[in-house]
Amino acid sequence: YLELQITNRCNLKCRHCYIGDTDFKELSIERIKNILTELEEMQGLRVLLTGGEPLLHSRFTEVNGMLPEFSLRKVFFTSGVLLQKEIIKTLNVDELQISIDGLEDAHDSLRGRGTYKAAIGTIEDCLALNYEVSVSTMVHSKNLQDFDKMEKLFKSMGIKEWSVDIPSVTGRMRGHPEFQAASVDAARCLNYGFGGGIHGSEPGFACGLHLMTVMADGRAAKCTFYSDSTVGSAEEGLRRCWQRIRPIRLSDLKCDCEHIESCRGGCRYRAETLGDSFGRDLYKCASYDIMKS
Question: What do you get for the CA distance between the two ends of the chain, in Å?
Answer without folding.
Answer: 34
